[in-house]
């Protein structure tokens, strides 16, 4: 293998594929990135066996191709090596199957390679049909839900994706809060889909997607899902099991509906949460009184804080409810609107956040009982 | 006590004085910041008993003064509280000696105060004479030496400052490297000075000083040193003991004098150090061969790197020497020049860095024997 390439061209693709390399990986060959130089261009592949990312750089974006070939280069140090190269063009030259020289100007790295025959064969074929989504829409949907994924509980550590006709629904919950987003697809999809994508891998996909109008092809298989985005193939295994039916947890009738300015409400929680720092999840108290929401917290020995905002409300009955300020702020960040509806029943029933006249995004937060 | 003040005015001074509050402090009263509102203005004081910082905001920079007084406000949360205040003006109102309300708009913090009678009396009087230095010069001198201070060894964890006539000399060493800077003062100082300032406190002083031409008064006492900079008094105790006489360690005659472009040399070390990451202090090898410096390192199983730069040299004899790339890069960062002189004798004698025709800044690095 021998080729020369622009430093930033290869660096960007190495950053993309190396997202598949896990720090917890214990299979030596999967610490490597597969370089396949063919007549049409350079393929880069990295995998942790659960997640595989493959990127392609066509020949017209490669400075010069002198000899095709396959090598597995250890990913450790590789990004730094390319980043710090002193000139714009970086040269790769295989000495034999087990050694590669990466050089430019007076800088020369002589790296041991892994045996390319050891690299697993990973099936990355298209499905017969697929879903199309704009990159920016998919990225937004991920950001509006992924934060609510559980860090530890089985199945809840994944993002639940359902497709029914032309509606795609994403749900994430850690059982204390829930985020749900529905997107209308341009075309209906033939099969009914109800899958769980590992949350960790969804976060990596989010980093690869740009906030642009480019199309993402989504290929759903029985045990895996593949995203094709420009020159990148991103494929992850699915979690095996049935996601709880969350729709029954989400109330649709409310006794108290409060309309608040989103930024004012966010700022008020942010300030009220300051003295709640020492407690788990930073619990604050919210009181609905006359035309005000009064947010408060206290820290023993330090003092207390009370922050008020003016709101509109549908009912005269006052109420008081406590919840995690962190969860409330996470949820509020997913809305772009000026106003937010805070829907409640009693101090022990879920709080539902949504905007007026739009049910496509719902955030649920369970209150916390304080005595 | 009752006053109103611009949020950023008080925030900046609170940031300055809170640098004296130690996270390791175990005396409850010293977790507080002393607010003294007098007819001439507001004094803020914080101390960890070793370091004291006092700041003054004159009355004309205070929005309104309604009632003078003294309170000790717990520093924990205080900066965040002020930072997050929703309006430009923040109001302070003491309820009694043990409670203060900080409020603006609809946000109200009710904080417990500490007993002001418990706050220690700290002498912050001027000395009869003092040294004057421009803030930018003092700041530069600190940055050129402080990084070499030891993190653990007694006395070497301080910055050695000597004054002799109109020459001020700063030395820091951790016994593996040494940084020495000599500054010419505008006026000679009457007494001979040879003191050790705790390194940790010098770093805090550095953060308070701006890179400007404002004057810093330096008052040297037997057991403490005081810096007066604009509205700030910064006073720290000195370390008690005798700093080793370092001048005998610094060679002045060299067999090998290499002249290199500073940026090229720095970049070359940065690249050569990449594969040395796993080893303590990132040892790299430097060979002087013909008109080149060849820097190299290797990581077992990964590979090796060799990086070359063209240099000028005073002698034909080749040599090879190994050292910590981190220490060399730290030292190189202190020079502003285009060229750097790398002065050496043998592979076990100190390397001295300096610029041509200027001995005011010297960086010493001990080589590391590799076999």
Architecture overview:
Chain A has 371 residues and is α+β, with helices and mostly antiparallel strands. Chain A has 3 domains: 2-118, DNA Polymerase III, subunit A, domain 2 (DNA Polymerase III, Chain A, domain 2); 131-241, DNA Polymerase III, Chain A, domain 2, CATH 3.10.150; 250-365, DNA Polymerase III, Chain A, domain 2. Helix content of chain A is 15%, strand content 47%. Chain A is built from 6 helices and 24 strands. Chain A has helices at residues 7-17, 78-83, 135-145, 199-208, 262-272, 325-332; strands spanning 2-6, 32-38, 41-47, 51-58, 64-67, 69-74, 89-96, 99-104, 107-114, 131-134, 158-173, 177-198, 215-220, 224-229, 232-237, 256-261, 283-289, 292-299, 303-310, 312-313, 319-324, 339-344, 351-355, 358-365. Chain A has a 13-stranded antiparallel β-sheet with strand order 5-1-7-8-9-6-2-3-4-15-14-13-10. A 7-stranded antiparallel β-sheet of chain A has the order 11-12-24-23-22-16-20. In chain A, strands 19-18-17-21 form a 4-stranded antiparallel β-sheet. In chain A, a hairpin with a 6-residue loop joins strand 22 and strand 23. The longest helix of chain A has 11 residues, at 7-17. Chain A is elongated. At the A-B interface, strand 9, helix 5 and strand 19 of A face strand 9, helix 5 and strand 19 of B. Strand 19 of chain A pairs antiparallel with strand 9 (107-114) of chain B, so a sheet runs across the interface.
Specify the biggest β-sheet of chain A. Answer: 13 strands, antiparallel
Write down the oligomeric state. homodimer
Helical amount among residues of chain A, as a percent range? 10-25%
CATH topology of the largest domain in chain A: DNA Polymerase III, Chain A, domain 2
Radius of gyration of chain A, CA atoms, in whole angstroms: 25 Å
């Amino acid at each position: 293998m021998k080729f020369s390439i622009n430093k930033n061209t290869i660096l960007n693709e190495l950053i993309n594929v190396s997202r598949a390399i896990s720090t917890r990986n214990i299979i030596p060959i999967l610490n490597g990135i597969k370089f396949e130089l063919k007549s049409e261009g350079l393929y880069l592949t990295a995998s942790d066996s659960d997640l595989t990312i493959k990127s392609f750089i066509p020949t017209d974006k490669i400075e010069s191709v002198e000899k095709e070939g396959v090598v597995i280069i250890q990913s450790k140090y590789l990004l730094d090596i390319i980043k710090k190269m002193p000139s714009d063009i970086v040269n790769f030259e295989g000495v034999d199957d087990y050694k590669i020289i990466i050089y430019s100007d007076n800088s020369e790295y002589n790296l041991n390679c892994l045996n390319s025959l050891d690299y697993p064969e990973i099936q990355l074929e298209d499905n017969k049909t697929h879903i199309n989504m704009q990159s920016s829409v998919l990225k937004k949907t991920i950001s509006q839900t992924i934060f609510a994924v559980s860090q530890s509980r089985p199945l809840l550590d994944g993002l639940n994706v359902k497709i029914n006709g032309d509606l795609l629904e994403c749900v994430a919950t850690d059982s204390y809060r829930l985020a749900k987003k529905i997107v209308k697809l341009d075309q209906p999809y033939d099969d009914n889909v109800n899958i769980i994508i590992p949350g960790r891998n969804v976060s990596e996909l989010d980093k690869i997607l740009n906030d642009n109008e480019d199309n993402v092809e989504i290929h759903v298989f029985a045990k895996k899902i593949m995203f094709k985005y420009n020159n990148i193939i991103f494929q992850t295994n699915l979690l095996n099991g049935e996601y709880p039916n969350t729709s029954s947890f989400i109330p649709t009738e409310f006794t108290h509906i409060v309309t608040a300015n989103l930024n004012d409400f966010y700022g008020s929680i942010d300030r009220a949460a300051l003295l709640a720092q020492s407690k788990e999840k930073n619990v604050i108290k919210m009181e609905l009184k006359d035309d005000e929401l009064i947010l408060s917290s206290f820290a023993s020995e330090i003092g207390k804080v009370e922050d008020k905002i003016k709101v509109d409300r549908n009912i005269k009955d006052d109420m008081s409810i406590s919840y995690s300020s962190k969860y409330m702020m996470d949820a509020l960040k997913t809305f772009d609107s000026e106003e937010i509806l805070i829907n409640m029943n009693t101090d022990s029933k879920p709080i539902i956040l949504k905007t007026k006249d739009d049910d496509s995004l719902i955030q649920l937060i369970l209150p916390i009982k304080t005595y």
